[in-house]
Specification:
Residues 8-93 form the Core-binding (CB) domain. Belongs to the 'phage' integrase family. XerC subfamily. The protein is mostly helical. The protein has helices at residues 10-24, 29-48, 58-70, 75-94, 121-136, 142-157, 161-165, 195-213, 234-244, 250-263, 268-275, 280-283, 285-301, 311-316; strands at 172-173, 178-182, 188-192. The chain has a three-stranded antiparallel β-sheet.
Amino acid sequence: MPLPPPTINAASLLREYMTHLRVERGLRPLSCEAYQRDLEMFAEFLEGANATLLTARQESVSGFMQHLREHGIESRSVARKLSCLRGFYRWLLMDKRIPHDPTVNIESPSSWKVLPKSLAESEVNEMLERTGVAARSDAADGASLRDHAILELLYAGGLRVGEIVSLRQEDLRLESASVQVRGKGDKERIVPIGRSAIEALEAYVQRGRPELMRSKSGVQRTLFLSVRGNPLTTQKVWQMVRSVNSHASPHKLRHSCATHMVEHGADLRTVQTLLGHADIATTQVYTHLAIDRLKQVHRLHHPRAKVHSTPLQERAS
């Protein structure tokens, strides 16, 4: 297919791409608006360099990144705009509108990567103990059993909150100690889980879910239900996690799962598969987290790692 004429204007090209994002990829209107603003900003930058969206080269993208940094745009925002450009040019390339992708060799500087926050193992254990006590009590209701099962699964499998609420009952494979998860882009993966998570899920499925189902007629395939028998929302899961620990979140539990695995010797490929990361570079951030934690423990507990004060410092204190 011949390349389109260079006279095609940016506005019509962006309209086509927005339609692709909404219809084919199912993105929400707010996400599409953010992508459009980023692309319009890039198109305006290109005009000053006598280039267009279709004629942009690698140095055009690099120049745009530098332009943003020089104007005080935060690293996270710069990284998001680069991600937007990559998606746009992949679309153009697949549609044979351009001969090459100008973003293909552009790498995000390490300074753009924000280290995810994780909880200490003791914090996670305390959360699981709190919900576990409530779930094991004689007065445990469906919601208590559900909340404990969700917390166990968030930490055991490193699931995203969206993956939790979209689980169906048939996705559980407790006899093989695993769960089938649908992640980003509808990619499926099998996530292994441990004995604590299995026991919590069994208790919920056998006693908790039937109780929650009583308030709703008809067949409900979604695994985790509200007290009214409807599919649980991501907001409700966030609220539940925060009610157990005000500093925690579903995302922090996912990061904690990965960080603690690396700290205990898991290889990055295993963690990548567990979390459903498409790129190993996304998973490598947990190595830095584990090393930082290791340094901290070493400084606190190794007898030759501690900073000893000098006699002068002791007298000054």
